[in-house]
Write a structure and sequence with these properties.
Blueprint (H helix, E strand, L loop, with lengths): L3 H8 L15 E2 H12 L13 H9 L10 E2 L1 H13 L5 H17 L4 H35 L7 H29 L3
Antiparallel strand pairs: 1-2
Helix pairs in contact: 4-5, 6-7
Protein name: DUF1836 domain-containing protein
Keywords: Coiled coil
């Protein structure tokens, strides 16, 4: 796995909807979709993959993952919440996401809670996580190579990739389980 640095660069890990990317005016659904498509275009695995669709947004609204829109327009707060949903849906069920965001939605609606600083904190953590991830991915690739070197198996690039994939999926599952356990604490 000599191509690990190339992989890291290819992943374009800095993609996210940043506060400065969100217009100060409310947007119609098509404009929200365009914002997400433009932002996350490089992360698509193929041309047919959709980042965000009308159906997805409608399902999030029906599932009450964010507070109701006014006049078919999405505020900055809606876009922030949709961005969080977009990130969370990679690991959590829609029911878990609803549970996680219920309190945030309630604060926005009833307490005049400003989402900007909260979201910026999330983005700051995301940046730190990304830097940690880059170093950790290099370590995991080296670990896979070293583990195969300890065996009597011919250590080719394919087997190193398979071992690295299995290791990364395992780490993903461990983090997901930790997140789900934290979600369960919100039920009380």
């Amino acid at each position: 796995m000599n191509q690990i640095n190339e992989l890291i660069n290819q992943l374009d890990l800095k993609q996210n909807v940043h506060l400065e990317d969100i217009p100060s005016i409310d947007l119609y659904m098509d404009q929200v979709i365009q914002l997400f498509e433009k932002t996350f275009e490089p992360s698509k695995r193929n041309e047919t993959e959709k980042i965000l669709t009308k159906t997805m947004i409608n399902n999030y609204a029906k599932g009450k993952l964010f507070f109701p829109v006014k006049n078919k327009k999405y505020s900055k707060e809606h876009i922030i919440l949709i961005s969080l949903i977009f990130q969370l849906k990679g690991a959590l069920s829609i029911g878990d996401i609803k549970l996680v965001l219920d309190g945030v939605n309630e604060k926005v609606v009833t307490e005049d809670f400003k989402l900007d600083p909260f979201y910026q904190s999330y983005l700051n953590l995301l940046d730190r996580n990304t830097e940690f991830y880059k170093e950790n991915l290099k370590d995991k690739a080296k670990d896979a190579k070293d583990e195969l070197a300890k065996t009597e198996i011919d250590s080719d690039d394919y087997l190193q990739k398979v071992l690295l994939i299995a290791s990364l999926v395992n780490m993903s599952n461990l983090y997901r389980k930790a997140a789900e356990s934290l979600v369960d604490t919100l039920k009380d």
